Amino acid sequence: MSALPARADAVVIGGGVIGTSAAYHLAEAGVNTVLLERGSLGGGASAHTAGMVRTYFPGDPHTGQMAVRSLNAYQDFARHTAAPLALKRLGFLVLFTDEQQVADFEAGHQAQQAAGVQVGLISAREASGLNPLINERAVLAAAWSPEAYHVDGLDIVRGYAAAARNHGARLFTHTPVTCIDDDNTVHTPQGDIKADSIVCTAGPWSGEVASMASVDLPMRPHVIEMLFTDVPPSPRPDLPMTMHAASGLRIRSWKDRILLAMGAPKAGETREAWLGRIAGHLGTLFPALDGIGLHRAWSGDFDASPNNTAFIGEHPTRRFLYAAGFTGAGLCQAPAAGEKLRDLLMAK
Predict the structure, then answer these.
(1) Does the record carry Oxidoreductase as a key word (predicted)?
(2) I need a surface site. Which of 68, 110, 116, 222 has the fewest CB within 10 A?
(3) d(CA 322, CA 63)
């Protein structure tokens, strides 16, 4: 590994999808950029997602607008990075099981459309036509958004990283930040580097990195655990991503099994009780999965803001920019986040 340079216009801290997007967009704009990643590129939260990009976020058209902008970038990814993405359309269903959820959808539908999100209300029968596992009698209606795709998050990281290097950025892995001085000198075990601007994209560790620079980011990292089912009696490799609005339970096809998530055990809740809650929802909503075996797939830490909406901005008195709090939706917003960070830095 080459030695750290003495200075850079921008030092990006964090090498997941957000950090590599930022490094690419900055370097493409002619900014002398260095990225520091404490482990391997994409080895943090970016490696622990369900591998979905979507544009519909219930009750959150702002995130939807970011995701629409990002999906457009992914569909044009190869032209900018020479790394084509294997986007596989699955679609996204949100199941409503009480009248208030339907009313909330209808109240926010116009704002979603204004954000460019393709989503509509469909009947329980139409939803079961898209996902035959659904119990029609347990569902009042559903939101259907066709713009949801499976993608390998590491392909995004690798594509952005290679493109950033092609534009002159220098990326250093296994280089944790240990201290940040008031003059934006960044200290690492591999040496020190003076940054005109620091860009914090450290995912669940963003609050820790920000505190080194005496910046307060109100982060609330949390754990999400992904589960696999046993192979179901009739495997369906083409199921859309399906979410239960009330519980947050999400399922999708994963080869010949089902991948699912519903957060992690609550404080004081045993793992057995949490798995029991999941099994109860599965049996009600998807009878074919009633009693099916559940197994740990993987788990990971995710960065979350107090309202689960990412914050992207800059400190008012020092050259410290940040993009954090994506709550597992970083893949959906990475291109737009990188563009916003570039625009903020270039405006200084």
Answers:
(1) yes
(2) 110
(3) 17
For the stretch 140-189, pLDDT in tens is 999 999 999 999 999 999 999 999 999 999 999 999 999 999 999 999 99
Please give the full DSSP string across 185-213, using - where no structure is assigned.
EEEETTEEEEEEEEEE--GGGHHHHHHHT
C-beta of residue 292 within 8 angstroms of C-beta of residue 286: no
Q: pTM for this structure?
A: 0.94
Q: What residues contact residue 270 under an 8 Å CB cut-off, 6+ apart?
A: none
Torsion angle in degrees (nearest 10) through CA of 149, 153, 155, 159: 100
| Of residues 308, 329, 332, 327, the one with CA closest to residue 147 | 332
Count CA atoms closer than 13 A to 19's CA, side-chain side.
Answer: 34
Largest CA distance in the chain: 65
Instruction: List C-alpha distances in Å: 97 to 92, 139, 145, 252.
Output: 16, 5, 18, 19
- For 307, residues 6+ apart whose C-beta sits below 8 A from its C-beta are none
Strand, helix or coil at 299? strand
- DSSP secondary structure, 207-229, as one string: HHHHHHTT-------EEEEEEEE
Rounded Cα distance between 192 and 254, Å, is 44
d(CA 287, CA 96): 17
Rounded Cα gap, residues 184 and 179, in angstroms: 10
